[in-house]
Design a protein that fits this description.
five-stranded mixed β-sheet, globular
Length: 165
């Protein structure tokens, strides 16, 4: 199963649309995950139309229209792999321990908010992934998104993609 993981798209405030490389990845994916801060419900609609399957959550910049349609936390199981998606996880210091306590029955936690790519593993084995932002790199050298695969209940082939402008 091919995954595309994104967050913090901020369309249309930070960009008018998603980058073409990200749309191409969406078109090829079996599942698209968005970890919040969409900003406008039109992106949710368009991404839903183009995705084979879409899972998303709302972020702190998402207003009532998006919050009415999206959960704060999404949970799904893919071939036995237990995932959770949330926008905010708090400060970087202590993140692994906090998230391990908050998501004890989860194998992979996808989150956003910081616009900073993140890939660590908590002491209990919880994998934490943040794809950065494909439209607003903030203090990062590149805008980014992730792709990955789920094979036999294992997350594999995790790739951080740089978005070229």
């Amino acid at each position: 199963m091919r995954l595309v993981i994104m967050a913090d798209t901020h369309v249309p405030k930070r960009a008018r649309d998603l980058p073409s490389a990200l749309w191409a990845a969406v078109d090829d994916a079996d599942l698209v995950i968005h970890a919040g801060d969409w900003v406008d419900a039109r992106l949710l609609d368009t991404l839903g139309e183009r995705s084979a399957r879409l899972v998303g959550v709302y972020g702190n910049n998402d207003g009532p229209a998006l919050r009415a349609r999206l959960p704060e936390v999404a949970r799904l199981t893919l071939d036995g792999l237990r995932l959770a998606v949330v926008h905010e996880t708090g400060a970087a210091a202590g993140r692994e321990r906090r998230c391990a306590a908050a998501y004890p029955d989860t194998d992979v936690l996808v989150f956003g908010h910081s616009h900073i790519p993140w890939d660590t593993t908590a002491p209990n084995g919880l994998r934490l992934l943040n794809p950065g932002s494909p439209t607003d790199r903030r203090r990062q050298p590149y805008a980014t998104f992730l792709t990955a695969r789920v094979e036999d209940g294992v997350l594999t082939a995790i790739d951080l993609h740089r978005v070229e402008r």
